[in-house]
Sequence to fold (400 residues):
Amino acid sequence: MGLDLNVATISLLLLLASTANAASRVFNVRNYGAKSNSDITQAATRAWKDACTYPGSSKVVIPAATYRLGTVDFLGPCKGPIEFNVLGSIQSPGDPKYFKGDSWITFERVNHLTVSGTGAFDGQGKTAWGRSGCSKTNYCIHLPISLRFDFVTNSTVRDITSFNSKQFNINVFGCQNLTFDHITIKTPENSPNTDGIHIGRSTKINVINSKISTGDDCISIGDGSRDILIKGVICGPGHGISIGSLGKYHNEQPVLGVRVIGCTLRNTTTGVRIKTWPNSYPGIASDMRFENIIMKNVDNPILIDQGYCPWNQCKPQIPSKIKISNVRFKNIRGTSRTKEAVEIICSRALPCTNVELRDIDLKYHGKDGPATSRCVHVNPRIGGHQNPPACRFKSLKKKI
Fold:
């Protein structure tokens, strides 16, 4: 009996020791042949594969140096939590013709992923911006997104920098419980279609304590987004923080539960906005709050635009079929570059309901007088201080 107990105890100790040894392991790309100022595509791919199949916590490390990296898909599922730690600078291929798809680096179907480090992802977008077929009137769908997160769950991206992306800096699709913390995005304001972070068909996505300057929306939220928190983000230059555009495609999913809290927007072409296409497919956008936001020299600081029609790519005479409801703009203050600081332009087919303006203070210093507001097909609920004076749409019932 004593012998059996000793054997059992020894077996348990060996098992625990084995588990402890497998608890965490580092996979440095230099051990796979990576060298500074060289292409590390194969080394990074092999390091990820080994880390992903390791039966414990693992970390892929990109040491401090400059590297080149081709198109890479870091695929899961992995056998344990995995970290991708970037301490160096990773450069994208410069020539847009290199890319056969719409992404440079993709993390896909990974649970408990951490992307971390003080390093940077250099999209080398200057080689693509302004080329034929890629302008402010073209979405450049042939150009790669720098970082894609597809079907990633229970994960964190922190401290990294993305700059000079050829198209979107970061794209989030089909993800759940994913947090971006202390992210820095730097792309020139004249770079086309370089959204900072685009979120679509995802739930419980947080973007917090980050700085984004770009040539398009700092953050854009597409259909199917639910329980989104944007907090402590500094945006500018760029096109602001946007929900939409919505309604362009068939079977879009509702946008529900968006919180934009404690953000600062500087020198942006719009502030916080919701935009839907006219002549749209049916859809829903509801339960959205924009609170405690500072505007500094911003065009159209508060905007709902249900006639969004860039480059005349729509039929503006046919109203939007996106139903917007339960929207709060609270404690938004600062300066507007446009006289109309507040515009709430809703659809005549489906007027906005339960829109609230509370404690708004937006100053305009132009020669044509103080700031104004405009409402179309909406009568917002008003509370607290209002500058400009809150708008009312007196002919709402006649226009329905």
Remarks:
- The CA atoms of residues 139 and 193 lie 6 Å apart.
- Helices lie at 2-21, 41-52, 396-399.
- The chain has three helices and 32 strands.
- The first strand starts at residue 24 and ends at 28.
